[in-house]
Amino acid sequence: GMPGTGKTTLARLAYNDDAVVKHFSPRAWVCVSVESDVEKITKAILSDISPQSNDSKNFNRLQVELSQSLAGKRFLLVLDDVWNRNYEDWNNLRSPFRGGAKGSKVIVTTRDRGVALIMQPSDNYHHSLEPLSDDDCWSIFVQHAFENRDIQKHPNLKSIGKKIVEKCDGLPLAFKVLG
Predict the structure, then answer these.
(1) Across 5-104, where does the E strand assignment appear?
(2) Are 32 and 111 part of one and the same domain?
(3) How far is CA 52 from each of CA 46, 47, 63, 65, rounded to the nearest angstrom?
(4) In this predicted model, which residue has the larger pLDDT, 44 or 143?
(5) Looking at the record's lineage, which domain of life comes first (predicted)?
(6) What pLDDT digit, counting tens, does each position of 12-47 carry?
(7) What global pTM score does this model have?
(8) Domains of the chain: total
């Protein structure tokens, strides 16, 4: 989805949900962004799930250690803000995930549909976040800007707020920041 639609926020809410925390162990969150070095990503995952891991291993050793750390466990991994479209890189990264228990999940957030297609596992679910409706934007804007106070008492602020919401094009991050 587009930048600012709430992909990371939604993934973070799911990741930190009490039921999710109880259901998955281990869990790891890695912000990938433009820097998509598979070895660095592997190290980041490993340091999240196994803090005592030694950072100086070569890539093959890291993959073996990650595979052993995930073997037979129902894990949750979030790869946030992925940009890399290189199938071979992602195939290499995924290799240690195959030994995880049934029900393990990898959540990928990306603004690039091509990345989503490359990352698809066999039991994938792809959800594209779209901008919010004007009514939904207004509701969230009022919560943040007016802290749910009675906006009807301030008609001039309401008209200004409506113009702000209109300019935000349905992007939650934009009106939350402005609110």
Answers:
(1) 27-33, 76-82
(2) yes
(3) 9, 7, 15, 12
(4) 44
(5) Eukaryota
(6) 999 999 999 999 999 999 999 866 789 999 999 999
(7) 0.76
(8) 2
